[in-house]
Amino acid sequence: MNALIEQAPKQLYLDGRFVDATDGPSFGVDDPGSEQRLCDVADGQSADAQRAVEAAVRAQPDWARTPPRQRGEILRRAWELMTERAEDLAAVMTMEMGKSLTESRAEVAYAAEFFRWFAEEAVRIDGRYTRSPAGGGRTIVTKQAVGPCLLITPWNFPLAMGTRKIGPAVAAGCTMIVKPAQLTPISMLSLTSLLAEAGLPPGVLNVLPSTSASRVVEPVLGDERVRKLSFTGSTEVGRELVRQCAPNLQRMSMELGGNAPFLVFSDADLDAAVRGAVTAKLRNNGESCVAANRFHVAEPVAEEFTRRLTEELGSLRVGHGLEDGVSVGPLVSIEQRDKVVELVADATDRGARATTGGSTIEGTGFFYPPTVLADVPPQARILREEVFGPVAPVTTFRDEEDALRQANDTEFGLVAYLYTRDLERAVRLGEGLRTGMVGLNTGLVSNPAAPFGGVKASGFGREGGAEGIEEYLDTRYLAVALS
Ligand code: SIN
Known about the structure:
Elements: H1 3-7, E1 12-14, E2 17-19, E3 26-30, E4 37-42, H2 46-65, H3 68-84, H4 86-97, H5 101-121, E5 128-131, E6 138-145, E7 149-152, H6 160-172, E8 176-179, H7 185-197, E9 205-207, H8 213-221, E10 228-232, H9 235-245, E11 251-255, E12 260-264, H10 270-282, E13 292-298, H11 299-314, H12 334-349, E14 353-356, E15 371-374, E16 391-397, H13 400-408, E17 412-413, E18 415-419, H14 423-432, E19 437-440, E20 455-456, E21 459-460, H15 465-470, E22 473-480
Parallel strand pairs: 7-8, 7-10, 8-9, 10-11, 12-13, 12-18, 13-16, 15-16, 18-19
Antiparallel strand pairs: 1-2, 3-4, 5-6, 6-22, 11-21, 14-15, 17-20
Helix pairs in contact: 2-8, 3-5, 3-6, 3-7, 4-5, 4-7, 5-6, 10-11
The protein binds succinic acid.
């Protein structure tokens, strides 16, 4: 076993201790690049979920009373530790998830930054004091921690999606139970021991890897003392979780699927648009809800854009994420690759042409090459479904109205990218695109200091920015009568 994996914790984390699951079951974690088993991890049971709830509920009152500065200092220390150990954290992530080391290093920095950001936000939880309109009374508005939270994190950003939830929960004074993705628990468990080292008290963070999400999620959401759910994952699972929150009316943040359009107008700086397209498409090998899903290009520049994008994507090296010079690692699983293969086959059957890539790489590991599809017809599934892989379907538009119609023709509304040098058009489209985020002449919107989140089937709630901590705070109003 690799030394870093050997040293990493592999048990549940309950009430400040790493422990085995009830009755001792475990499950295997594999490297998608080599298809080798990395290690076994404790498999959380419903009794463990109940223990996690008890620990989080017990720790909640003291934790909410802990001075904000102290909570912020723990996050700040965790940021320092993550920065010092970035190389090890990145290597572990590459092994269990597949992404290249360059991508993993970027994720560790991105993830750590949520801790630094929320360390600063912890001491800025404000309220207000006003005189009532009639003059007699006073209104005092304060913010209070919502209480114990359930945080469910995905496999595509095993650290950053954790810190984006844990950071504001710690800053606000909430305790929590984290359910990491089954495919990538080791990164989250490594983060857990680092947070304990940074001084997070027992019970504040409890971590429950499990092969059965429902087995651990149902007892947690079924307990009315748990007051909030934050979920990043598919829209389908999000809908089910919303149903599960209904009986106890827990607050929810839902960061769900995307289908990001990338619009290129004739007046765009084409070099910048191609660079932005590579960034937006290959974020995390395309396994990201903000990865550009479909490219809509103005007819006069479509051929040139496709040619240049083909050159860029076709020149990237594919291989095991730990190898030097590799830009594109494997997809996370065989199921994920099969889905990409299916969407490409559907598009080519309907007349699309692969100008680079387009067929799976045989051999060990779940590799799929960066692919550009030209002449993609409107009926192709790849324009409607989230690809989650390194495939760029290109289609054209006639004018601004046509571009906006095509961009908005989806149930999703997470992010859109827009390349133009016309300021008036940028503002018109910036306001007309029905998404929570718009990248204007940039292929990257993810930023710990900005509110990340979507509308429509992409969910609700915001993570990061000044908005991120609000999701973990309840507003309380005190009416003061004065004679
Ligand atoms: C996601 O894919 O779920 C999040 C991506 C990001 O934060 O950039």
